[in-house]
Write a structure and sequence with these properties.
Number of helices: 4
Helix content: 40-55%
Number of strands: 0
Structural class: mainly alpha
Order of helices and strands: HHHH
Strand content: under 5%
Distance between the termini: 5 Å
Radius of gyration: 17 Å
Oligomer: single chain
Length: about 100
């Protein structure tokens, strides 16, 4: 369960209230919007004939975006992840949790 996953990572789950955007992390919401717009802009004039084909195109663009230098930091999202986030990630629980 979600509670088991939170317990495994030693964290508390504090869900945002519905329709209360101030409860959510603004930076995360904006980051998702930036990625979504960047990818959709590049796919806008393409036609896909299967979900597999669409997912492949998105996966390729996601890789390109992660490797592009950020204007503010002058390094890529991938480099930030590799140096800041990845070293402190904890392993997944040994057993899959139900949702």
């Amino acid at each position: 369960t979600y509670a088991e996953l939170a317990h495994h990572y030693g964290t508390a789950v504090l869900p945002a209230r519905p329709y209360k955007p101030k409860d959510k992390a603004t930076k995360a919401e904006v980051a998702v919007q930036v990625v979504e717009r960047w990818i959709l802009a590049r796919l806008r004039h393409r036609r896909f004939f299967s979900l597999v084909e669409l997912n492949t195109a998105i996966r390729q663009l996601r890789g390109q975006m992660n490797d592009r230098p950020l204007q503010r930091h002058k390094i890529s999202r991938r480099e930030l992840f590799e140096t800041l986030d990845k070293p402190v990630l904890r392993p997944l629980p040994p057993h899959r949790t139900s949702t």
